[in-house]
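Ex. 9. Protein: NAD(P)H-dependent oxidoreductase.
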Amino acid sequence: MKILWLFAHPDPRSLSGALKDEGLRTLEAHGHEYRVSDLYAMKWNPVVDAPDYGHDPTDRLHVGPASEHAYTHGHLSPDITEEQSKVTWADTVIVQFPLWWYGMPAILKGWFDRVFIRGFAFGHTDPETGRPLRYGDGQLTGKRAMVITTAGGRAATLGPRGVNGELNDLLFPLQHGTLWYTGMSVLPPLLIPSADRTTPTAYATAATRLRERLRALPTTDPLAFRHQNTGDYDDDLLLHPHLTPTPAGPYAHYTTPPPPHHP
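Predicted structure tokens for NAD(P)H-dependent oxidoreductase:
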């Protein structure tokens, strides 16, 4: 496999950094190719701005059309095109970050804002129906993705009855709204809990779990998100009532809801 490891933590000596290194050793040992985007080490610019697209700063910036035009005509900032080339090369993307305020660090959100632009990651339509190709279809269909995240909370607090909310719900904007939106199959996430209280024994357990998940990358079943264009949604993109009779939040958008997270 060809794997892009997208990493967002400011300290390579952290638990996250140690797990990244462990993961890369595992990939190498099993014959996989990999490339790494270590966003803090790269001093990645997370801010969308007119220079990304060679856009005249005196004109109003419409990000969608401007980014698509720059992508189509080869005017994107070189740092963006370099990251897009890594995504195109990879068949699997690992997204690793600490869970800060129930989401990604800003530098990682900015990577998606600047790299996953219209024309590259979305904005395509079915030539026969004219329907947008997204949520299971699209430019990145055929690729796999998996989130690895560390959190300060205990594992149970990120479960279905935990005060922090269920892990897949917290990751829904990324897993469903970004990765699945662009067509990528999303594997169940890997949570490393109690990150601020890791002991040598806990680290050994976490490293073992990570190695096991990486070895199973090619065969792990992805989360069963609903496709947009296979009949589950009406023409207004609303889920048909017979599929979920009452509003059910994120879990309505799975054909089979994921099992409760277990450490």
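Check your answer against this statement. The first strand starts at residue 2 and ends at 7.
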